[in-house]
Predict the 3D structure of the following.
Amino acid sequence: MAARPSALRRSGRVLLYVVMILAAAGIMLPFAWMVISSLKMNNQVFTAPVQWIPDPVQWRNYLDIWVKADMVTWVRNTLVLSVAVTVLQVLTGSFAAYGFAKMRFPGREPLFLLYIGTIAVPWQSYMIPQFQMLSSWGLNNTLWAIMLLQAFGAFGVFLMKQYYESIPDSLSEAARLDGLSEYGIWWRIIMPLSVPALASLTIITFVSTWNDYLGPLIYLRDRELWTIQIGLQSFIGEYNAEHALIMTGSVLSVLPIALIFLLGQRYFVEGVATTGVKG
Amino acid sequence: MTTPVVGEERTLGFAQPDTRPPLRTPRTSLKVRNALVGWTFILPNFLGFAVLTLAPVLTLFYISLTSWNIFGAAQWVGLDNFTRLVGDKSFHTALGNTFYYAALHIPITIVASLGLALLLNQKLRGAAFFRTVAFFPYITSIVAVAVVWNMLFSPEYGPINQFLSLFIGGEMPGWTVSKDWAMPAVIIVGTWKDMGYYMLLFLAGLQTVPGELHEAARIDGAGAWQRFWNVTLPCLRPTMFFVTVMVTIQSFKVFDLILVMTDGGPGQATLVLSQYIYQKGFEQFEFGYASAVAVVLFFICITVTVVQFLYNKRKEA
């Protein structure tokens, strides 16, 4: 009588493990295929049956790609954009969040509702007027356009506000009594306590700017301004039969993101959870 | 010097409505000062937000009522663009395809991500690694993802069809080169990419389900399925609401995935609203007409959000 439920339970656990391992393998398969193909000769990419271990291993692709594609320019532009956007987003977002989370003044609530409201408005619906506006300022075909586009999103304000609200008000009250100005409280009390949230916002903003495809597609025409996503897409069009080389480019475009993600995974997960829990 | 008083004023001023007529007293000026300080915090971000998001959203409606195109300035045409939409076959196709994508992508993503979250919540060994794996597709760039999947889906030599041919005979799906299979292929990739994100949201929601409730249900003899249905799901309602709203908006605005995977093809088999806006606006330079399509997309997203919000409110009451 006692043995049966536990046996049932154990086999249930085993089943769960099997499901988990199969799901993990299924999810990772495209990445595995990408890496494997990047190490093959071009004519070995599509074979029947699939050749899972490249033979011989072709490291050449990782040299050739720098010659055939303008990777250095693309990576440089993408880095410039990602860093600039992240700095702007983190500074203005965490600053504004203080106003929303820790201060009471007329107009605060309706303003925040405006921010929330735009979550339901897709960028695709207003990209045309936005493009017209930025073009009329002469910013079309400049990196400035992408910086402006990405830097003032509602997401940063939202994430930081959620986090600030978890910091007890008694701390800022005490600092006020000690004569610290609101700016002082933000910089000396709240910011140092918000390092995890700041890390989340930094990582998430950096990665989403790195990965952005639509903004650069619309605004960056000159080859010298291309980001890695636009560059890779045009490379795919240009060398559409060079499957192995395309996979090499894909690996290189994903690699920095993979590294950042593995190092800062905790902050990613916490950032997503913070914005989601309260809705 | 005066800042501590400002802090005090902050709490006092809002705890009780001020009934006195305190014009020009230090109290009012402090209140004004406090409001100014509050605004200075918000202003740097809000300026950017107002100029780059709010202003374009408002101008969108105006442009949609004009004939603005590459040949001429914006001329007021009233609702002409919208009457043109009614007879536009391509627009109908785009609208239909968008709903097709949404109708499958929304439920599949919700079920898959909830399933993954429940699995991870079982405290299995290796769960942290699995969480990493499941979330990874979400943070990888769409271009790399699309090109890999396109190769995997390759009808003749692609690994997916090779795998399928082990189990089924006959003609294999043509995936991205077939009119019938292109959309399912896109939906598969969309779900694969997005489910990790919603899994994290569900996982956070699951942490808020009280353990005692499960225990009580177990003692009352409820099976795993009953406990899921009667304890877990009701407790997850806030998360479910948030996830549903996000997945819905994300599905209706789907764009870059389709742009790089199929470019709307073959033919117009995967043409969606966002892409139609792009084609009309940035390829054919019919800004007025493209804006009218954008207004439709805008109202679809707002409507589904409001409807879900009201539904959630009613359930809560």
